[in-house]
Amino acid sequence: MFINSSPLFQALYINLVVFANRASSEANCFESADLTLFAKMGSAFALPRLVRLMLLLLLPCSCIAQRNISLGSSITANASASIWVSSSGDFAFGFQEIGAKGFLLAVWFNKIPEKTIVWCANCENLVPGGSKVQLTVNGALVLSDPNGRQIWTAESAGTNVSYAAMLDSGNFVLANQNSVNLWESFDHPTDTILPTQPFNLGSNLVARYSEINYTNGRFLFMLRDDGNLVLSTTNYPQDSVNAPYWETNTAGSGYQLIFNQSGSIYLIAQNKTIVSNISSDTSSTRDFYHRAIVDFDGVFRHYVYPKSGGLSSQGWKNAWTVLDYVPPNICMAAPEQVGSGPCGFNSYCQIGDDQRPTCLCPLGYSYLDPQDEMNGCRQDFESQNCEGRSDDKHLFDLYEMTNTDWPFSDYEHFDGVSEDWCRAACLGDCFCAVAIFRDGNCWKKKLPLSNGRIDPRVGGKALLKIRKDNNTSTNVEENHQKDNESTLILVGSVMLGGSVSFNCCLLLTTLVVISQLRKRKVECLQRCPVVPGMNLLNFTYKELEEATDGFKEEVGRGAFATVYKGVVQFESTSLVAVKKLEKKVAEGDKGFKNEMSAIGRTNHKNLVQLLGFCNEGPHHILVYEFMSNGSMADFLFGNIRPRWYQRVQIAFGTARGLSYLHDECSTQIIHCDIKPQNILLDSSFTAKISDFGISKLLKTDQTGTMTNVRGTKGYVAPEWFRSMPITVKVDVYSFGVLLLELICCRKNFETDTQDGYPVILTDRALDCYRDRNLDLLVEDDEEAKNDIVRVEKFVMITIWCIQDDPSMRPTMKKVTQMLEGAVDIPAPPEPTSFISTL
Predict the structure, then answer these.
(1) Which of 501, 621, 630, 766 has the fewest beta carbons under 10 Å from its own?
(2) Whole-model pTM?
């Protein structure tokens, strides 16, 4: 309401609001406080300020709200390249180096450490160092290589460009002298849209291929000409579009997608009414950076990032946080009649606790490209013989995967049959790669398998056919053996035309050689058994001795084994970790079999991958993928404190790996020795659980087991010492201690350097939590102190994990959800002894 009711004054105010809104939508020329002021126009100072602002409006808005880039300006791609920055500094335009592969001409958020890219030119091809982008004197924006050859150009309307500008909205524009945009990046979106960016009929976003590969990927977000907003897969590598896997069903009514400055995303009709809400959060663009992107995994997500570190006190972390996303479960939403689906052929899709899909290979299969998990998997064993010359079905077995399916790969369907009938039908059919049994129905499927997913809603089970010995060369070796024998017999027969004595000697020699070949084959099969159902390479001791240069370079040592660095040419892997068990044969054999049984059947990105083994006489050796960044202990307790965000990710990865072992394996696995030395880090610092030598396996109908004390001092749960059944909760206890060490970058047991008394980190954390003084735990760690809300949550989780009573500890699945913020963390009780209740 106006206090000053003068018609002239009101008209002046209305015009100011109209002009200011128009200007701010393009360049944020005015603060909203300047407009709010004029709701109280009666004050003595309001009118002079209004007049001053009206005079400012007479100036070109670019003079006060943007930094114009003059004709002839250029940027050269190199490590210290200059950039063109918006007036607030929120956005920048220039070259970003993508790994060591080249540079990308892009627009990005400039004030956050991640420098997140929101638009790129010529995304399909990175350019080499020395390339240049120039706003020519003719007004063209041209990208050229170091030799001056044109690679890309912005096609502006006409030749009247006077300047370029990086606007605070994230829009990069070419404009004429009247500040009319002749070309703008907002009209050519890549995979991201920003607040105020128009998204009209026919507009689309194309997902990048991977997180660091900005070429066009396999998913499309599009407002079709009929008004329907859809997510579809593409017929990759072509751009043609498949059927939608998510849609608003607004054909005939949808007109424009709005992403407003309040942070809401919705679809409107031509009459401006809302026909579909996509994301309705109210986190204003004043306090948060916003972006919406069709991610490389095919999910459309709305992200926010706090502009001020002070928001951490309200629970916001200094990272991109997902506010909303569609579809809820892409693994279940995106099966395609033609094509592989969300994941590549022969793989299957699984939704994690963070609601992000993971593409996994089934047993007996491995990634086509370990660096591209969405590219599919290949079969690692020789398929069943279809030539009819021999019946080899006895060489194959069916591996059971519950709640798993590969839709649209079936070629036969049978109704009203039993599971045993379905099993026999698949084993007896050389074309059958997997059978799906559900509710009396049996579907036989052949390679390549497509649209794989695992989810409780699938129901039933997949019966995956694998070779019992998983040896790709079995038949080849058999044939080679037969050829050798036939050749010797043939040579012997030919030579029988010579003297009788010579022929007799030759015949005896031939028989001896054949006998030795057969004996050698039997000995090899007895000496090197392949564990059924495991996709592992069978090495000889000599091969591993050569691979490690005589077991020369030691990279780790434990109570049961020594680990050596080796080189084996295997697919894309060259460096391997060779674990040689050194105890007496009986103990070594037990630990060897435990580790083989435990990890040989697992498949998870947070578990170290077992590649092969050697079981030759007294030699018990396991061959693992090599972890280039060593153990968490080396990483955490070295001279340099690791970054806080890296420690957080290690906590997430370890928790997910344990949750998989406890809840997602057909045989539940208790690791029994979770500690920093057994958490290894790959080249990307991804945490991977290792060392299953003392693990315990539980059948599905078991809840606990009795065993001798295992594990490492400081990480061992109290029930080990109390003759109680051992359950998965012992791993939860160990994880709680490990999580606290990640928070503090200190060992659980240390000796005080001043008085020489031992310091127990869990006791110290309890005291700090009780006294509400958690800063003491991270007193020299500014990154952790700036994220003190998360620190407090992690400490609360630790206290829950180290409860003396195992029944009070959460499951690892619940721990993972609490870590990731998916569920609330209740106030933990004091850990107290429960001896009196025994």
Answers:
(1) 501
(2) 0.54
